Amino acid sequence: IDIKLLISDCNKILDEYSKLNRNTDTTKPYSIMLTENANFSEEREGLISYADIHNKSYFDRDNEATLKESYKNTSLAKLIQKLPFPFSIMRLSVLPPSTIITMHTDKSCHAQIAIVTNKDSFVAAQTGVTKHIPADGKLYIISTTIPHTAFNASATTRVHLSISIFDEDYVK
Question: Residue 32, Cβ neighbours under 10 Å: how many?
């Protein structure tokens, strides 16, 4: 896919949510939901804090999802057509400057594409393995079924397109 177009489309979405959610605390990590499924209960126009994502069931990781109607004419739709797996969630994961996501595990593995990043942003496993995901247009598969965290130790925001893989073979 055209990574420049994907980055441009994702930046437009980020700008739109910034305007719509002026009263929301965006100094802490948050996600913008890009998909929906039958059990998804959307609140705050899809802007969800990481605490809410990992502590509440705002969406069903056990059902395949579809891209929200408002994004079907974007490069996200072209990306979905090329994915080698079905997915349960697609979101923009935003780590503001000097923030960290607490150690946690997910029910499925994730694929990630760095949209905006910097040399001081990392994903780390509890085992100590740490990886920087570059903004190179590649899709990185991450084993998030083991304890892991992400942190942004820089002065700029880090944004990843995160896709929860809905495929048992990828979880294994």
Answer: 20
Structure tokens at 137: 């247009």
- Report whether pLDDT(129) > 60: yes
Instruction: Report which of residues 24 and 151 the model is more confident about.
Output: 151
In this structure, what token pair is assigned to residue 62? Answer: 């056990």
pLDDT exceeds 80 at position 144: yes
For residue 96, give both structure tokens: 């503001």
Q: Which helix (H) or strand (E) holds 13?
A: helix 3-20
Provide the 3-class DSSP secondary structure of residue 169: helix
Helix (H, G, I), strand (E, B) or coil at 83: coil
Q: Provide the sign of the torsion angle of the four alpha carbons 25, 28, 32, 38, taken in this order.
A: negative
Instruction: Choose among 58, 5, 10, 64: nearest CA to 34.
Output: 10
The secondary structure of residue 138, as a DSSP letter, is -
pLDDT tens digit string along 59-82? 445 677 888 888 999 999 999 999
- Ranges of beta strands (E only) in 34-98 are 35-36, 47-49, 66-67, 87-95
Model confidence band, residue 53 (pLDDT cutoffs 50, 70, 90): low
